[in-house]
Amino acid sequence: MRSLQSEIEQRGQRIFELVDKHPEPLFSKAGFYQRLMMLSMRDEQLKQQLFRFVDVLPSLSTSGEIVQHLQEYFAEARDSQKVSEFLGAGVRLARAVPWISGPILRWNVSEMARQFIAGRNSDDVMRTLRKRRAQKIGFTVDLLGEAVVNETETDEYAARYLDLLEGLSRETKDWTDPLGKNSALFPVVNLSVKISALYSQINPADPADAIAHLAPKLRPLLRRARNVGAFINFDMESYAHKNITLELFKTVFTEEEFKNWPHAGIVTQAYLRDSEADLRDLIEWGRARGTRFAVRLVKGAYWDYETAKSRQNGWDCPVYLQKPESDTNFETLTRLLLENESVVTSAFGSHNVRSIAHAQAFADELGVDRSRFEFQLLYGMAGPIKRALVDMGYRVREYCPVGELLPGMSYLVRRLLENTSNEGFLRAKFSDNVPAAELLRNPREILHRSRNGVLPPLNSTINMTKNTPKTQPGAPYDNAPLTNFALPENQEKMRAALREQRKQFGRKVPLTINGEKIWTDKMFSSVNPSQPDQIVGYAAEADIPEAERAVAAARAAFEKWRRTSFEQRCELLERVAEILERRRFELSALEVFEVGKPWSQADGDIAEAIDFCTFYARRMRLLGRPRLTQNVPGEESYQHYWPRGVALVIAPWNFPMAILCGMVSAALVTGNTVIMKPSEQSVIIGAMLMEIYEEAGVPPGVLNFLNGKGSVIGAHMVDHKDVDLIAFTGSREVGLWIWESAGKTREGQRELKRVICEMGGKNAMIVDSDADLDEAIVDSIYSAFGFQGQKCSALSRLIVLEENHDRVMERLLGAAASVRVGNPEEAGVVVGPVIDEAAYRRILDYIEVGKSEATLAYQAKDVPPHGYFIPPTIFTGVKSNMRIAREEIFGPVLSVIKVRDLDEAIEVANGTDYALTGGFFSRSPANIERIKAQLEAGNVYINRPCTGAIVGRHPFGGFKMSGGGTKAGGEDYLLNFLIPRVVTENVTRHGLAPEKTPEYREEFLWPKK
Ligand SMILES: Cc1cc2nc3c(=O)[nH]c(=O)nc-3n(C[C@H](O)[C@H](O)[C@H](O)COP(=O)(O)OP(=O)(O)OC[C@H]3O[C@@H](n4cnc5c(N)ncnc54)[C@H](O)[C@@H]3O)c2cc1C
Fold it and tell me: Ligand 1, from 143, 299, 350, 396: best to mutate by most atoms within 8 Å of Cβ?
């Protein structure tokens, strides 16, 4: 008996022989597409530009716009001669006669898209399906959709699916299975469905909500499919949606109505590390259900996305990192499927002849008849392989996307990426002409040989907080990863933490002064804004005498703390980071109750606090050692830093841990002693930070915790002669008062007070006429309404070019209406309550102002009746001089301002007192460059939300009335807490000078320890 490998080789060779018999080129359409492929494969940078241009093209309406984009994208292309040639009526011609070249280009790209898109609608696709029928190739049809951003769009999409199903079953009613044998397993009509198109608010943290919305949308389609004898397949999308898709599949097909229906299928992606476990689980489920089902095995289409996303978030990468690993796993899963043929029907979705030949050979080895499984390939790709498989007597089905060019763009770009990928089989065979023997090699063997089987690590990033961060000067900095709530274990941890926090309701926290716990006569209650009758906790309230004691304690502790080595102070911060990480879920849950933060936002706040600690520790190690100013023989001159003295930290409630911890950590690591005053609304979280610092070993008096009214103790301490530095984040009104008051020198004051002041914003995002609205709408909604718009970075003014205005509004209003408002204890809620009754009333007053000034275009209706819930609200027809366009509202209220052109947009965006964050959505490289240069904001965000700054990556803070120009989480931030000092020594003795002076020297500490 021959070995499996030789069987595979023999079959593979046979496929290649048949492929070579058909003269048709593999990338079937010559011309534009082929030139695009060739150029892309030659130059990675050019590939990026070409694909971006292809992506924006369908959204451009005039020839002039097309030509302008063309020039912008390729002005600096290294291979511009080739680009010109490739674009046919290219750049040169474009300048002269845009009305000719624009349409030609659009036509070329449409033609290219048509290579991968089987038809615009159900009538159109029938032409293709009939041709394939003649070639004995079956179909599964996929409806391309724009990324749905609201529930109106998902309803339309579901209706289009039903239409498609009707049309296909009507048109194909006399068709029979091309193979005949075992045809009952393979209905002629086969639809592929993507769940993300059926519910716009899928939140991976909340599978139950997603399933509750998706199941009712699917049932009518499934019923109809069952009645007409069709097959429904659930496609698999990104990893974040994987568990929901699996759960939905199992839930719906276990229901009484569908339990006995065998014509349901789902996709398994072999590039996922957990795919084998998932497939085993599915098979077990199928056996228990007692009815056949189907699995389409693919490698996976989102490899680039998954690797980039996990790197960005510091998550374990869910996909294999070496191509032969995916290939090997594909074969492992092939075996698993075929071994369980009694309950699962397999479809092998691959263009890779090795993967295909392996499935054939293994099926034979097991004695599974070739009519009991099928091969599936994509429309427009690998035509000769399809024919070869048909000739060999296998069942072949083609995956046929249907839809318009614009919605099809992301699909098209995925295919272009796949076809030009260095790792791809099709490129290797048909472009790079890799020999057949090489292409048929066993992927296990390749793995074994390459690097002796040593694979890249499972974690593509290092989690600094897990490995005690002993950062050295210059060491790279890694942010704390966000919690991935798509993972069920994290959902469960969060639920458990919420339950636990509930039990702690009503806890009491004291003041901490000089290490002593102090209870006062007055207790202050902190309530849950979702249910104000629930008291999260009580805090002792300080008055002037306690404030005096705290200042005295901090002053007394200063002398010793300033002489503590910076290394010890850095280690203190790193211990705090470790404790924050350990108590992460507990603290996040507390934030849900105390300030109404949705899960992921609460987790982000704790992650940011961790980042501040590790980042500032790292920065301090760079700043701490005295540094030579100039290398001059005979003289040593070293600059170093002293702390300023006693720091008063006054923090807001909206990032109750991150901002408080950031300011406190910066002050402490630089050698200042601190009085921290959290916001009255988030005092329990503040007390937790005190507790954590104590556990980490902060000495008595170095950090003091004072809770009380800002107007009483805050004001008293700002004016205090013994307070040297005030770090404040909060409202403009209070910030300006502190700035002014700290400028007055009091009797006995030693230092000029330093004020670090971060205030509000009236942030604008501009939507350009060529913006990708799928992204612009989702990101605008998130920026405006995430955490109820209570971030100083939140979007408040959406500036839309008139050309795009109506389309943007239609999608924006629908998207706003689809956002989940409710108690953030529920995992998927995006908009929770505002912080307290005063904020609630103030925002409602602004809404009244808006109604009198502009047009109320949208206001949510179903918000919970109790608690401080403000319905997300959108005004249109807003002019830049109106109050709602000028004043900070700090709630879920968005003003839309329509402008003529980009000039006016920039003028409006810059025309406020503030300059904190700003955003721009555009696909015009020239316009993007202009915004980079001209938008007045401390943080400018392009083609992404304008909130969510990450420590180290996006140093955060604004200017004008938004703040004093300091950047929290930035390289220079610590300098605000320090006084620079220079020590110069003449080291010449009788003309003898040392030749070399070290760049750094030991800290100036006395007495030395
Ligand atoms: C009929 C059909 C339906 C499909 N449905 C889906 C679907 O529902 N969901 C989905 O995600 N995809 C789907 N796909 C797309 C499919 O995932 C890709 O077409 C497929 O991965 C290409 O694999 P291949 O075997 O044809 O080619 P090959 O060239 O052998 O494999 C390419 C694949 O290998 C993987 N890969 C590339 N680089 C690496 C690396 N460095 N490390 C590890 N792995 C790597 C990627 O998955 C890449 O797509 C479908 C494909 C077909 C044919």
Answer: 299
